[in-house]
Write a structure and sequence with these properties.
Strand order of the largest sheet: 3-9-8
CATH architecture: Beta Complex
Number of strands: 12
Helix content: under 10%
CATH superfamily: SET domain
Structural class: mainly beta
Largest sheet: 3 strands, antiparallel
Radius of gyration: 15 Å
Distance between the termini: 43 Å
Number of helices: 2
Shape: globular
Bound molecules: zinc ion
């Protein structure tokens, strides 16, 4: 596209992609990001209870991929649902914006700490991020004393 009309969305589309490795989806950078770079903006609808993929926005507010879109084009506008957890992530959410918190190289997986957004996970899971800071089982900040 020659026009630079909707810059933020176009830039996002070109900078990240969904990768499928060993039966797991992940979000991967297709170019480098610097600290504080904007990676993507969450789009979706607010629902009252969490799912495996939703991101918590507030008390009883969970951003979810609209049901219709799940069947159609989950890979495009709603790629954020493929963001994996890490206890030592390279990105974090500021409201609906995912920002780089360190330099991210092209082809590196983009991750955030689920415990920073989720009070209580709908589907707790054992973490394999291999970080020294790994919390073991990811359940949400309710279980971490991570309220700040
Ligand atoms: Zn971990």
């Amino acid at each position: 596209m020659p026009e630079m009309t909707n810059h933020s969305i176009d830039a996002t589309t070109e900078c990240i992609e969904v990768d499928h490795v060993d039966g797991h989806y992940r979000l991967v950078a297709t170019k480098g990001f610097d600290v504080e770079d904007h990676i993507l903006t969450l789009e979706g609808e607010i629902v009252g209870s969490p799912s495996r993929f939703s991101v918590q926005m507030g008390l009883n507010q969970h951003l979810e991929v609209p049901a219709l879109a799940q069947a159609e084009q989950p890979m495009d506008r709603y790629r954020w649902r493929f963001l994996n957890h890490s206890c030592e992530p390279n990105a974090k959410f500021e409201n609906r914006n995912l920002m780089a918190i360190r330099k991210i190289n092209a082809s590196e997986q983009i991750t955030f700490d689920y415990n920073t957004t989720e009070y209580e996970l709908a589907s707790p899971f054992e973490c394999h991020c291999e970080s020294d800071k790994c919390c073991g089982v990811v359940r949400g900040y309710r279980w971490q004393g991570k309220l700040d």
